[in-house]
Amino acid sequence: MTTELITNIGQLVTNVATPAADVPADASAHVSEADTRQDVARLGILHDAAVLIEDGLIAWVGAAGDAPSADLVTDAQGSSVIPGFVDSHSHIIFGGDRSAEFEARMSGQKYSAGGIRSTVAATRDASDEELRERTRGFLGEMLAQGTTTVEIKSGYGLSLEAETRLVRLAAEVTPEVTFLGAHVVPTEFAGRADEYVDLVVGEMLAACAPHARWIDVFCETGAFTVEQSRRILTAGAALGLGVRVHASQLGPGEGVALAVELDAASVDHCTFLTDDDVAALAGSNTVATLLPGVEFSTRQPYPDARRLLDAGATVALASDCNPGSSFTSSMPFCVAVAVRDMGMTPAEALWAATAGGAAALRRTDVGAIAVGNRADLTQLSADSYVHLAYRPGVPLIDTVWKDGVATAVAR
Ligand code: NIG
Ligand code: FE
After folding, report:
1. Which of 311, 304, 348 is nearest to 38 (CA)?
2. N or C, which terminus of the chain has less Cβ within 10 Å?
3. At residue 377, what are phi and psi to the nearest 5 degrees?
4. 190 and 108 in a common domain
5. What's the number of domains the chain is made of?
C-alpha cells in the first residue's frame, strides 16, 4: 500500500485540543501567544507540521522534522491544512430549481415552507439518472470547496415510492442518509395531515429505514406539530434510526425541547430560541446546527451563535444546500457569514464546520486530524484558517484529500 506524507504545513488545524500547559515549548510544535485563547486552543494547531496518510487513514501527525518517510511526499509550502468540512445538513437530491421564488423573495416576498411542494413535483418527474447526475454534481462542488463528509436528506418525494427512491439514491453516495418523509404534508393529503403521518410512520418508514441512518422532521408551523413530530421520531428511533430535527426556523416552537427530550444528535436552524431552549441545549448532547445560508437567502435575522456558545451549547455549521431556502453548497461561505453576522470567532466557526459537524453526526472518525481517523484534509491557499472568513467569496481551497485520495482544485 502507498503512503503519502504531507509536509511543510505552516499551520495544521487538528481539532485535537491541546491544553496550553501541555504544549511543548520547542519551535517545531509551538502554539503562539494568540493561540492560547480558548476558542483557538480548541483547534489544536501545530506549526511546521506533517501528516502521514496510509490506506485512506491518518497514520501519523507531528512536527515536520520528525516525520517518517513515505512513498510520496507532498510539500504544502507553508500553507494551512484543516480537517475536511463536515456538512451535516443538506437536501441535495431534487429536481428543478426555484430561482423564480428566490427572485420574488428578493423583491419583498416572504419565505414559506409551502415552496417545498413545487420541488416535490419536479423531483417526482425526474428520472433516477437525472437525480444521480445532479447529486453527484453537488457533491463535486462540495468537494471542490473542501467538504469531505456530506449528510443527505430525502424529503422531496413525499410518497412511498418517491421517498424510497430518494433514500436509495442517497445511500449510493453517502453513509449519512436521513429519511425526511415528514418534510411537509404533500398536496394529495391536504387537510389530512394525521393520515399522512400514519403513512410516514408505517409503510414509508419500513421501506426507507434500511437505506437510512437518521430520521428527521420539519417541526414548524406550516409543517408538522410537536405531537406529530414526536410520533414520527420515536417510530424512527424504534427502528434504530438516529434522531435529527428541523426546528425554530420561522418562529419559536417546541421542536428544540422535543429534540433534547429525544436525545437527538442535532437540532437544526435554531433561529428563534427561547431562554429555555438555550438552557436545554447547553445541558444536552444535542448539537445546535446553524445554517447561515438560510437566513442569507431568505433575508431573515441570523441565529445568535454567541448566545448558544456562551451558554455552553455545542454548535455546528452546515450548508442546508436545497433549492428553496439556501442554494449554496459552500462551507467557506457559511463560515464567513457566521463570523461576520452570527457572533462567532473565526476559530469557533472553523471548529463548528468541521468537528461540530462531526458531533452533529455522532462521528469521531471525521472532523479531526488524528491518528486512525479518515484521511480527510483540506489544504488552503493561505497560511491561516482565518482567511476563510477574512477573504469571503475567494476560492481558497487548494487540494482536498478524501479517504486519502487527493483532488487538486482548479482555480
Ligand atoms: O432546511 N426547513 C425545511 N426544509 C428546508 C427548506 C426546503 C425548501 O424550501 O425546499 C430547510 O430550510
Ligand atoms: Fe433543511
Report:
1. 348
2. N
3. -135, 150
4. yes
5. 2
